[in-house]
Here is the input.
Amino acid sequence: MAKKTKKAGKPEKQKTDKLKARKWKARAKALKARLASVPLVAKSKVSVVSPLAPKDGFPVLPEIAGLELATAQAGVRYQNRTDVMLARLAPGTVIAGTFTRSATRSAAVLDCQAKLGKGDESTGAAILVNSGNSNAFTGARGRESVNALSAAVAARLDLPENRVFTSSTGVIGEPLPHERIEAALDGLVTGLSPATLPDAARAIMTTDTYPKGAMAEVEINGQTARIAGIAKGSGMIAPDMATMLVYIFTDVKIGQKQLQSLVSRLTDSSFNSITVDSDTSTSDTLLVAATGQGPALEDMRSAEAKAFERALGEVMLNLAHQVVRDGEGATKFVGITVSGAADDADARRCALAIANSPLVKTAIAGEDPNWGRIVMAVGKSGAAADRDRLGITFGDITVATAGLVDPDYREEDGAAYMQNEDLDIGVDLGMGNGKATIWTCDLTHRYIDINADYRS
Here is the structure.
């Protein structure tokens, strides 16, 4: 009897399955119709300049004695786009740098790290940069590309190969068509000029919406020392270093070890204090070249040396802030300062937790003064904290004190403040004297549009 019942149930089950199938097909058809009506914003190739871009545009950068640059269209990834930059540096140039500590860093980064502080400075140096392809996760072929380009530049500029530094930025995991860059080298060498820093800033861009530059001048022993820098960076930005390339040039005469000490220290308070999306690049490179054609710094404890350090720090911080202001899809520039921490390391840990929180960043994008999300981020950060000591401010507005909403705080004041483009969020942990500031941006749907369409 059981068998007959089982057989009798088959037609009924089949009928039910067919009804379910028709139902799901109808739902799929309706969903397809809805999706067809949604504009494919992510497929747009129109680059909209970030609303946070410097209002005065690209700055006027001084020519740096001992520096010549040229740019070219090599077709590394895209046609009709300037994508290669070559810098030739005078004999006597010293170069310092900092790099990503990513375990999957590119062949170019590893090569630069190996060359830094080595070689005969009297021969001069060169820097070759391409955009469109990062030459990362490319194995032995990546190393071959770096070696081939270093050799080609060295031959044309009469330099030792260990004085040629290369950088690549762009798509990860695709072999670099370095022969296209080699084919452009003769034109690059012919076009070398001291007045092409703005062109160089554009040549190294990827998803950037504007070129980034900064400068400073400082008096040293009665002479004017000049500093000029360019940077690229928009997404995949997080401390360590924060995909980012930075090249800074100065005419100061300084020892390589002394310059390296300055650069390492200043990186921590600039490029290692920014985050757009918490992702660390495989290609981050900062190179600072001092040509030695200007005033000399001999005593690093002197007032002149301190003035130069401040000026270099200003250039680095300016460029770092511009990277955040060009964060993919950013509409808000946010400084997060944590004070009252057990120590500076705890303060930094807490500030980064707030800056990298998707909930905090989306609340900022929506202009929602949701201080509860900041409390959440403090709690998850791992920094020593006490709920009942916590204080929060939005600019000059006191939001919370001693772990409670301030009695004078009004939600409409917080909402009005959040409409500003530049925001300052303060957190006092009430635990000690540690302090740190991290700069970040909001997280909008445009970030998804850009990154979903990045390789197409």
